[in-house]
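Same chain as my last thread, 69 residues:
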Amino acid sequence: MEAYRAKEIADSPEMLIVSYFGVPVFIEHVNLGAGTARIHPLDRPDEEQTVPVDVLTEEFNDEFDTPFM
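reply #2:
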């Protein structure tokens, strides 16, 4: 993920799903200059860590990806 997209997600009032190596996480803060994000697993808010934003993946809801028939 790009740093600017990570910042958009962090600043968004919507809950967008992001994963860190398959683990759903919440983005607390993005450092655009360093290209890092402060994150924590959704189910463990006390386990914060700083990671490179390029290892984060935005997950998309497949509910609307069903072909129209």
